[in-house]
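For the sake of transparency, this paper describes our internal protein records without simplification. Because each token names a local backbone shape, the row as a whole describes the fold. One such record is reproduced below, unchanged from the form in which we store it:
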Amino acid sequence: MPLVKFKICPDCEKHNPPSRLQCQKCEMDLSSVKIVDETSLQNNTNTALPNEPTKQCDCGTTNLSQARKCSSCGEDISDIRPVISQPVNAEKRFFLHSINDNYSFTLEKTVTIIGREAEMKDYLSVKSYVSRQHAKFTIANDDIYVSNMSATNRTFVNNFPIPSNVPTLLKNGDEIGIGGKLVNGNRQSEAAYFTFEAIL
């Protein structure tokens, strides 16, 4: 029996036919959403042993070395070469400090995706301008980069929108707006705002 294939809307999680360019429920743009099937969603046995080679998908998910599709997004990863992840430099630490509240988050993983249904969901779940998977932080060579993943509300660095899926280097003291920016000197309550801190 053939597998049922579909596109999962990243905003409302509606399962759409593969040919759809807009979500049937919320009309979000699906042109860049990957087509997945039931097997790729159910196959979530994705635990690698320490020092075991893994495949890193563009979505940030670490997969077993023998995986042909990403266990999270269903992307074809058969051409990705398995590597043993190098530990992040323990001497340099990265933090996000909320501007409006006493909330801090440590960026410890090589790739961290934040959003209402990702990392920091305990803080971001009440922020309606924040997408389920909104921004990706990538640590590389003692630097950290942020990429926008949201198609609806953008990610801002120092009040400027950053391009989607293009890593932007962060500097100590940068202000990051997740889903909003300063408008007439005011921050939007439905968005989240952080200062970035790097400590040696």
About this structure: Residues 92 and 200 are 4 Å apart (CA to CA). Helices lie at 38-42, 121-124. The chain has two helices and 15 strands.
